[in-house]
Amino acid sequence: MALGEPSANLPNELLENLxxxxxxxxxxxxxxxxxxxxxxxxxxxYKLNYKINISIENVAVTAGASAGIFMSLLCSFDKGNxxxxxxxxxxxxxxxxxxxxxxxxxxxxxxxxxxxxxxDLVKSLPANINGLIVSSPSNPCGTIINNHxxxxxxxxxxxxxxxxxxDEIYHKVEYQxxxxxxxxxxxxxxxxINSFSKYFLMTGYRLGWILGDKDFIDKIRNxxxxxxxxPSSISQYVAEHVFNYYDYFDNVVLSYLDNRNYLIxxxxxxxxxxxxxxxxxxxxxVDISKLKKNSYYLCxxxxxxxxxxxxxxxxxxxxxxxxxVRLSYACHKKEIADSINLIKEWI
Length: 347
Ligand SMILES: Cc1ncc(COP(=O)(O)O)c(C=O)c1O
Description:
The chain is of the alpha/beta class and 347 residues long. The protein has 2 domains: 27-242, Aspartate Aminotransferase, domain 2; 247-346, Alpha-Beta Complex (Aspartate Aminotransferase, domain 1), CATH 3.90.1150. The chain contains 12 helices and 10 strands. The strands form 2 sheets. A 7-stranded mixed β-sheet has the order 1-7-6-5-4-2-3, with helices on both faces. α6 (147-159) links the parallel β4 (129-135) and β5. The longest helix is centred in the C-terminal third of the chain and has 24 residues, at 246-269. It is globular. Bound molecules: pyridoxal-5'-phosphate. Pyridoxal-5'-phosphate is lined by residues 4, 64-66, 90, 135, 139, 167, 169, 195, 197, 203, 208.
C-alpha cells in the first residue's frame, strides 16, 4: 500500500488491439509534442469533461507528468526564482525546483485546512514569490481545492504576478458531486499538468500532457526535442484508445471509493482516526504518532516484520511528516483487508 500505482489494468479489448498492432507495425519517433491525433483527442477530452474548447496548439504530450513538471518549471522560471509549494506535498516538486537552482518556499498546511492551500494562505505569500504549484486532488492527502477557491487562488496569484502551475493528475479520480474544473478554464495563462498514469491506469506507459498558451507549448517543443525526442509512440497509440473506455475507468474509481471506506473502517478498528477524509486521488494520510514517534521507523519495522509497505510521511513533509504515514488504496480490497489484519496482530 505504499506505491501510488493503480492495481487495475487497461480493458482487455484494448490490450488485444495493442497486441495485434505490435505484431504488425514498427513504432518510430513521433512529433516532439506528440501525435496530432492524440493531441486532438486530449482536446476532445476537455470538451466532454470540462466543456471547454482547447486547440491542439495548447497541448503538449509529455513523457509522464514528471517530465511535464520538469519542463514547465524550466521554461517558466529563472535560476534563483522562488516557487511556492504546499507541505505536505508531492516530493518531486521540491526536488525538481532545487535541481533547477530555484528556491523552494514551503506553505505549511494543517489538518484544520484539510492539508490544502486556502485563499488566505495564498494571500499571505511574500512578495518575492514567482511561482506556485497547486495540486488538487493532492498527493499525499487526496484533499481538494473546490472550484470557487481555485478561481480565487488564481485571481490572487494574478494580482501578485505569481505564475500558477496546476497539477491535475488526479482529476476524475474524485468522490464528490461537484466535479473539479480545470484551472485552464479559469485562466488560460495557468499551466496545467496531467497524465495518463492515474485515472487511465497507464503508469508504466510514461505518458502525460501539458496545457499552456501557444508560445509556451512552442518552448516545450524545443525542450522535448532535445530531452527525449518524442513521447513513447507505442504508449501514444494506446492512449489514443483509452478515451473510448470512460465507463471502465469510472468503475475503477468507484472501486477506490469502496476501498477508501473499507480502509477508513479498518483503521478505526486499529484506533487510528486522525486523518482528513480524501475527496479524490487514492491516498489516506494518517497521524500515527500515538503508535510510534517516528513513522519512518514504523514503516521500516512493519515491512521487515509483516511485509506491509506504507509510505513514511517524511517523504512528503520534511518538517512534520514523521508523525504520518500515507496509505494507498488503489490496490485490491483483499490486500487492504489482509494488511489491516496483519497490522492489528503486529500492533
Ligand atoms: C501529484 C503527482 N504529480 C505527478 C506525478 C507523476 O506522475 P507521472 O510521471 O507518472 O505521470 C505523480 C505520481 O505519483 C503525482 O502523485
